[in-house]
């Protein structure tokens, strides 16, 4: 004869089994979704690699030169002149053409001083 306690134990065991089954089922679904997403990511990476290879092939200078020569009459392509990119007045000045600010002397020499006594940098590693 089953007592109330036994019914409660059986009910608790059934509830625990149901929860365990649901968790396992959800875990299996999530694992399958992760595998599907990983496969999609791999496919996208492979597609990107393939597109990069296609771009490298299509933009080879010798191939473009052959196409320019083949379609020269139709396209009437001409080399780009440097003045199409920037006019001379838009270019920065050379360093030797920069005006010297007031109070400063000419450009500072980048050479190291020839006399080590005149070297004002002291590291402390050598006694003088």
Task: Give an overview of the whole structure.
- This is Cell division protein FtsL.
- The chain is an all-alpha fold and 128 residues long.
- The protein has a domain at 3-79.
- Helix content is 57%, strand content 0%.
- The chain is built from 4 helices and no strands.
- The protein has helices at residues 4-58, 61-70, 72-75, 82-85.
- The radius of gyration is 39 Å and the shape is elongated.
Short descriptors:
128 residues
**What's the number of helices?**
4
Residue runs with pLDDT of under 50 for 5 or more positions: none
Indicate the radius of gyration in whole angstroms: 39 Å
The count of DSSP E runs of length 2 or more, i.e. the number of strands, is 0
Amount of beta strand: under 5%
| Termini gap | 106 Å
Biggest pleated-sheet summary: none
Helical/strand content category: mainly alpha
- Percentage of helical residues? 55-70%
* Shape, principal axes of CA atoms: elongated
- Helices and strands, in order, run as HHHH
Mean pLDDT: 80
Oligomer: single chain
Protein name: Cell division protein FtsL
Organism: Agrobacterium albertimagni AOL15
Region (Disordered): 95-128
In short:
With 128 residues, the chain is mainly α. The chain has helices spanning 4-58, 61-70, 72-75, 82-85.
Topology summary:
Layout: H1 4-58, H2 61-70, H3 72-75, H4 82-85
